[in-house]
């Protein structure tokens, strides 16, 4: 209980102790500005970064130590029904741990970038941490209003980050594009929330789900306004994860934003979208209680089709457009659209998973969580290398990221080449890397639900993506190094990046070979979401 | 320690160990690789010798008419992996798998020794080679569908680097093109099969291949998924018309990789067809395999004719390999015990023979930098040892008695003939058997011509300084492979005994499916059937 004499509204239990990790991250974010004020210019960057790293690691440990609980933070109940609050179940623990742990890695690889800035270290890390904080809140949302607010916290911070190199034309362009298109999607999202509220009379996901299933059980038709409402909300989320046709911002923003920010957009920001997709899918498409197991939900059936089509189009668009790209960040951008396609395949499998013999979206959810985990680590490694190579080519060769930056990297820096090669293979989904098991789980979820067309297209897209990832491996390993390209010590790999790359490589192989602990963790988190449905 | 676990762990451990050896210490790198593969070969030989007496760890029992058939897997090993998902790291071999394990061990050992001539990026070369062979062993010994696929795909990617970095671009083939084509087509086949494998899991609810074998799949399920899984693996065999990656890949690859590729990788496909497609889906196999008998004629005849028109030695042997894999497919398609036995035996014999040939081509290509028949000639004068080995390998390939290839091809043709002559099959089924016999003549044409043009006749001046294999170390891999060919040529029984242990249960299942179908047909056919009666009367006479 708060030691303040505030009259709390009836039914509200704050449970603020559950939010300790969030308080730590928020406190660190505010504290990150302090070194800027007190330390001499040379020491600011490192001090700020290490403060944030420690803060995130402490939050990570606290999250794991607290463990899952049935209680909600800032819980508002109406009888047994959750009206509002942040869930702290195993699913939420998984996502928050992913974000804080991964965020700590992002801070580590950012150090090479902020070291070269003459000012603004405090802002960069504070904004990054607030955005991560937003993803932490997103993990627990149980109503549409907090969904909106938490997502905006992530997104608005990301606008600023994308435009962070304000003297750089492309960075500014990236920020502006992101802002304008993001604002449009926000409008969609808000309108969708309004429409859903209009039909159900509630913002609580639990109540909305109950209403949809009750209507299905009673044989009522679900009005078009509800379908439109869900469609608009999903549009907002497709925008976050990069589902076609809401992907147009991705290539330019990913390319223009500073590289560590791109890493953040690919990983944590995308994770926010996926987490919300999972929460929405669980609430709307999975039976709201055991009494609905025999009921067919027309909304879920429509959405299997919509999600399936969007997934296929996203997947094919992403992998096919990645082929001709000559800049590595643009290639990663398009390939990340392809990965969004796989993630949406998993969501489609969840939507198809109502009914008597089903397992409440268990396969799909655990596949998506494992995918997020594997993708997070893999992307951080890839961007770690991209940052080092990009900085070195600018410094030594004076050129931007040209298409030659990776030619013959094998002979110039075997370490960077191996790290990049492994992460590209993991992104392609080749054993024994983590990405393989993630894709395997997605295919398993879709085949289990009989979505064979999706499965075959998803499997075929693996081959296409193998092609363009191998093109990069080819230029790293088969081509001769261009003259004047940085080599050996020219790369000046920061020690922190080195640690992240070594750790990341081990983790990628480990997650692909000894997947048991990671799978069990994702499984447990997915079960939490699945039991919510009953 | 479990021998199968050892043959997986030793190459894997050697791969990791190589990462930590300095890349300039070429001798140490070669020594580690040689010792590791040598150990694996020894273990495989001991397993082969002790196979008949070894206890069976798992037995898959399947019902057939009038009783049950037991399929024993020996040298089993099991470790829980992802329990919640039902994955287990489960190893075990039947006779079929063991023959392939022995083949792989022989070829990788010879391949490592042949690769002593590689001078460029030695460390990475052996890392890729050992990673590749770990995957190959994994496929032959895994008894868990997930790991089966895992290792299958694991074997493909190192190929990309091996051909792309250490391969050669010649007038006839571009290595970048060849390696990309190979990897993409193999992966395409693999992912198609993967969807099928997951569908099998969704139907049975387990990844345990022993349990899946005992499951009786419904006919319609079999009819849908047999082609999917079959085509996925057939791309690797390679079955015509999915074969085009193979000759180009051979031609661009360095010697040891061609050896592994033709010797072992292609066998992964045929092994998958037997182990997964035909074993799980016998009812569908009976329906579809006659079509395979047609397709494999294209392999045999078309592959052979294309080989005749080639002038690049590696392309000749490359097309000859897809021609020979046609015999393997024919043996499978015959659905007779002797035919399938012959097919597996041929997989072994062809693997050894073709590895020997590629090793020899690699030997002189390293010095001449050309493989075109028009540039070569009279090499016998400067390298009599290599030439003798090449002639032996060619004779084996052409099916000369005294070699394992003769014994196995004869079995395949007898099997195909039996099947064709069987009254229950359509009459045209005899045609593939006849074409297969003529295929041997075609083989003779292109091989004898290659021998004549490369090894005999006028020798261009510039080849006068070529080196033959002189030292024991240089000759050892060639002698080893030649000896194996001769050993199983004159004394095929031990190999056939081992192979038959794995083939018999499979054949019993297919035969049972055939009988079921025959019965179903007889129910429809009226009592009196003029044509059949006439044929039966003819038989009695």
Kindly describe this structure.
The complex is a heterodimer of chains A (534) and B (541). Chain A has helices spanning 20-31, 34-38, 41-66, 90-114, 121-138, 144-162, 169-200, 205-217, 224-241, 249-256, 259-285, 298-322, 328-351, 362-397, 409-412, 414-428, 434-448, 452-477, 495-513, 516-532, and strands at residues 12-13, 72-78, 81-87. By secondary structure, chain A is mainly α. In chain A, strand 2 (72-78) and strand 3 (81-87) form a beta hairpin. In chain A, helix 5 packs parallel to helix 11, helix 13 packs parallel to helix 17 (434-448) and helix 14 (362-397) packs across helix 20. The radius of gyration of chain A is 23 Å and the shape is globular. The two termini of chain A are 31 Å apart. In chain A, 61% of the residues are buried. The model of chain A has no long low-confidence stretch (mean pLDDT 89). Chain B is mostly helical and 541 residues long. In chain B, strands 1-2-3 form a 3-stranded antiparallel beta sheet. The longest helix of chain B has 32 residues, at 337-368. Chain B is globular. The mean pLDDT of chain B is 86. The interface between A and B is medium-sized, with 29 and 29 residues.
């Amino acid at each position: 209980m708060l030691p303040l004499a505030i009259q709390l509204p009836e039914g509200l239990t704050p449970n603020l102790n559950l939010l300790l990790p969030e308080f730590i991250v928020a406190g660190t974010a505010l504290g990150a500005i302090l070194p800027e004020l007190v330390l001499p210019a040379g020491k600011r960057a490192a001090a700020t970064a290490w403060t944030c790293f420690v803060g995130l690691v402490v939050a990570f440990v606290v999250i794991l130590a607290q463990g899952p609980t049935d209680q909600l933070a800032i819980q508002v109940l109406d009888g047994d029904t959750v009206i509002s609050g942040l869930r702290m179940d195993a699913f939420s623990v998984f996502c928050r741990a992913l974000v804080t742990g991964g965020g700590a890695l992002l801070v580590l690889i950012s150090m090479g970038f902020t070291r070269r800035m003459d000012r603004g270290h405090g802002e960069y890390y504070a904004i990054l941490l607030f955005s991560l904080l937003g993803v932490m809140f997103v993990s627990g949302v149980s109503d549409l209003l907090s969904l909106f607010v938490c997502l905006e916290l992530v997104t608005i911070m990301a606008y600023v980050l994308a435009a962070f190199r304000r003297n750089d034309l492309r960075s500014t362009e990236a920020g502006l594009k992101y802002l304008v298109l993001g604002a449009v999607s926000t409008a969609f999202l808000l309108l969708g929330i309004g429409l859903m509220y209009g039909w159900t009379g509630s913002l609580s996901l639990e109540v909305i789900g109950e209403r949809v299933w009750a209507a299905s059980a009673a044989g009522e038709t679900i009005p078009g306004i509800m379908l439109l409402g869900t469609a608009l909300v999903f549009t907002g989320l497709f925008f976050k994860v990069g589902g076609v046709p809401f992907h147009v911002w991705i290539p330019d923003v990913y390319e223009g934003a500073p590289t560590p920010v791109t890493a953040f957009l690919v990983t944590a920001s995308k994770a926010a979208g996926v987490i919300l997709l999972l929460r929405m899918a669980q609430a709307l498409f999975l039976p709201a209680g055991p009494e609905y197991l025999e009921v067919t939900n027309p909304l879920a059936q429509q959405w299997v089709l919509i999600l399936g089509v969007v997934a296929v189009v996203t997947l094919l668009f992403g992998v096919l457009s990645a082929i001709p790209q000559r800049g590595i960040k643009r290639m990663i951008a398009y390939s990340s659209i392809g990965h969004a396609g796989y993630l949406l395949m998993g969501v489609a499998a969840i939507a198809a998973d109502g009914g008597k013999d089903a397992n409440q979206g268990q396969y799909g959810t655990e596949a998506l969580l494992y995918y997020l985990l594997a993708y997070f680590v893999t992307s951080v490694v890839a961007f770690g290398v991209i940052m080092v190579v990009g900085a070195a080519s600018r410094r030594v060769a004076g050129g931007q990221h040209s298409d030659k930056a990776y030619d013959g990297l094998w002979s110039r820096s075997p370490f960077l080449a191996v790290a990049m090669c492994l992460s590209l293979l993991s992104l392609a989904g080749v054993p024994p890397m983590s990405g393989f098991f993630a894709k395997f789980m997605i295919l398993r979820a879709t085949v289990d639900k009989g979505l064979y067309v999706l499965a075959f297209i998803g499997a075929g897209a693996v081959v296409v993506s193998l092609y363009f990832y191998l093109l990069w491996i080819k230029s790293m390993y088969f081509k001769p190094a261009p003259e004047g390209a940085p080599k050996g010590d020219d790369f000046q790999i920061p020690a922190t990046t080195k640690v992240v790359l070594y750790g990341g490589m081990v983790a990628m192989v480990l997650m692909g070979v000894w997947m048991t602990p990671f799978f069990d963790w994702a499984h447990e988190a997915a079960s939490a979401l699945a039991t919510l449905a009953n | 320690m479990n021998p199968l676990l050892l043959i997986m762990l030793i190459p894997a451990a050697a791969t990791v160990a190589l990462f930590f050896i300095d890349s300039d210490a070429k001798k140490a790198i070669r020594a580690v690789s040689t010792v590791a593969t040598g150990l694996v070969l020894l273990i495989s030989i001991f397993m082969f010798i002790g196979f008949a007496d070894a206890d069976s760890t798992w037995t898959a029992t399947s019902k057939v008419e009038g009783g049950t058939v037991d399929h024993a897997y020996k040298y089993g090993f099991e470790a829980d992996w992802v329990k919640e998902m039902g994955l287990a790291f489960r190893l075990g071999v039947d006779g079929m798998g063991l023959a392939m394990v022995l083949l792989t061990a022989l070829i990788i050992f010879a391949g490592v020794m042949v690769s002593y001539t590689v001078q460029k990026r030695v460390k990475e070369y052996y890392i890729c080679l050992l990673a590749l062979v770990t995957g190959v062993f994994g496929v032959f010994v895994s008894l868990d569908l997930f790991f089966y696929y895992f290792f299958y795909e694991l074997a493909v990617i190192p190929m990309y680097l091996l051909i792309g970095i250490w391969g050669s671009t010649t007038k006839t083939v571009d290595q970048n093109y060849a390696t990309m084509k190979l990897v993409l087509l193999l992966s395409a086949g693999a992912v198609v099969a993967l969807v099928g494998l997951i569908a099998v899991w969704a139907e049975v609810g387990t990844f345990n291949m022993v349990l899946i074998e005992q499951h009786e799949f419904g006919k319609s399920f079999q009819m849908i998924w047999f082609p999917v899984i079959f085509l996925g693996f057939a791309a690797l065999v390679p079955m015509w018309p999915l074969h085009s990656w193979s000759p180009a890949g051979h031609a661009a690859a360095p010697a040891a990789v061609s050896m592994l590729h033709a010797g072992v990788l292609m066998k992964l496909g045929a092994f998958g067809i037997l182990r997964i497609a035909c074993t799980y889906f016998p009812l569908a196999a009976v329906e579809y395999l006659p079509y395979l008998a047609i397709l494999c004629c294209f392999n045999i005849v078309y592959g052979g004719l294309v080989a005749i028109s080639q002038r690049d030695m590696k392309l000749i042997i490359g097309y000859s390999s897809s021609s020979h894999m046609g015999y393997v497919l024919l043996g499978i398609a015959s659905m007779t015990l002797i035919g399938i036995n012959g097919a597996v035996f041929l997989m072994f014999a062809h693997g050894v023979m073709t590895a020997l040939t590629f090793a020899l081509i690699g030997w002189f290509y390293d010095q001449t930098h050309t493989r075109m028949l028009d540039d070569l000639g009279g090499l016998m004068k400067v390298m009599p040892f290599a030439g003798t080995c090449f002639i032996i390998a060619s004779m084996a390939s052409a099916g000369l008695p005294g070699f394992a290839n003769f014994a196995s091809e004869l079995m395949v043709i007898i099997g195909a003939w039996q099947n064709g002559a069987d009254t229950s099959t359509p009459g045209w089924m005899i045609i593939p058997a006849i074409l297969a016999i003529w295929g041997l003549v075609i083989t003779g044409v292109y091989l004898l011509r290659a021998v004549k043009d490369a090894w005999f006749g006028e020798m261009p001046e510039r080849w006068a300084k070529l080196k033959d294999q002189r030292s024991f170390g240089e000759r050892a891999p060639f002698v080893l492979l030649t000896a194996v060919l001769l050993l199983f040529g004159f004394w095929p029984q031990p190999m056939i005994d081992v192979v038959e242990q794995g083939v018999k249960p499979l054949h019993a299942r297919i035969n049972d499916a055939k009988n079921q179908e025959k019965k179903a047909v007889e129910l429809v056919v009226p009592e009196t059937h003029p044509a059949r009666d006439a044929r039966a009367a003819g038989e009695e006479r």
